[in-house]
Amino acid sequence: MENLSHLSLSPLLERALRGFFHYKLLTLALNLLTFEVLRPARPAAWPRVSLLVPARNEAHNLRRTLPTLLAQGAHEVIVLDDHSSDETPLLAARLGARVLSGAPLPPGWLGKTWACQQLSEAATGDVLIFTDADVLWQPGALDAVVEALLRSRADLLTVWPRQETRSAGERLIVPLNDDVLLSLLPAPLIRLPFASAAAGNGQLMAFWRAPYERLGGHALVRGEVLEDVTLAVKLKTRGGRLAIALGGDLVSVRMYRGYAEAVQGFAKGLPKAHGSSRALLALSWGWHLLAYSWPWLSGRHEFMLYALIERLLVNLKSGRRAPADLLEVLATPLLPLATLPIYLRALKGSYSWKGRTYHRPGHKAHDARSRP
């Protein structure tokens, strides 16, 4: 490709871009040292633990993941079948889980928040661990989660499983989930009382029952597409303690099966993450195009190096160290183009997920559900 060095920026914009990368790399350096990673450990005490799995058409995942959950030694494993059209409830029961049939979705609720609320009401544990059906638990993972929860003295421990990616499209965009966390949020800030320093991941959230119920449970976030983040923020707002960790070698997940599903999934929560502002969405995409693609077109080696180091450090810290994981760093300049369909889909007034269609806040239509 011809060096397009004439594509220059104003000095002010270059300083802003340099500051952007400096902040991200400094945050990454801090998180390399301080962000907790789950390690094999035996808890000093063993509270009564409920493992809770919301499931809608998840038979393809549960075949692989549910046996690993059942082997953890929890007091109970409950799967809530949210009106699946596949064999989710039969499979879960056959494997040995307690299976609940979900009630019809009430107005104002999203499918996952309603499923989690029903699970919490049926559970008997002192510790409620909500985990997605696609999360794979290795032997000893529950011990590590409970030990980290006890040691941190937190009301909520939320964990980011290591990302499994198989297709090229997944490799391009799914690790951005880790990048946002590790390059923008300094882990030590989580211990401070400020609600703005909060993060949550619904793939694995371990609550003590008492603070969860004082908070109002998932009913508090019934209509929130980013219910995990909102729960973490609300918890800290009300004086609760939050802890965060990476899954390391103990907990992993394949979030999406292919590029198209990843685009659909990421587009659900992107507007909320940008304050439901279309202008901010457009600005965000343009900024990332400038930060990650422009340097390669203009031959600005400084910014090219920053971007490569950022992606490399994220992969190393999150446990994605296989040769293919490290080689995907070279695709960094393609990221803005790969995420463009996500931004375009996020600009729409509605989205569909697992057979249900939802309308975003600010649009006149109410939830339109193809099934209960």
UniProtKB/TrEMBL annotation:
The keyword Repeat does not apply. It comes from the Bacteria. Keywords: Transferase. Coiled coil: none annotated. Residues 50-162 form the Glycosyltransferase 2-like domain. InterPro entries: Glyco_trans_2-like, Nucleotide-diphossugar_trans. CDD domains: Glyco_tranf_GTA_type. GO terms for molecular function: transferase activity. SUPFAM superfamilies: Nucleotide-diphospho-sugar transferases. Pfam families: Glycos_transf_2. PANTHER family: GLYCOSYLTRANSFERASE (PTHR43646), SLR1566 PROTEIN (PTHR43646:SF3). This is Glycosyl transferase.
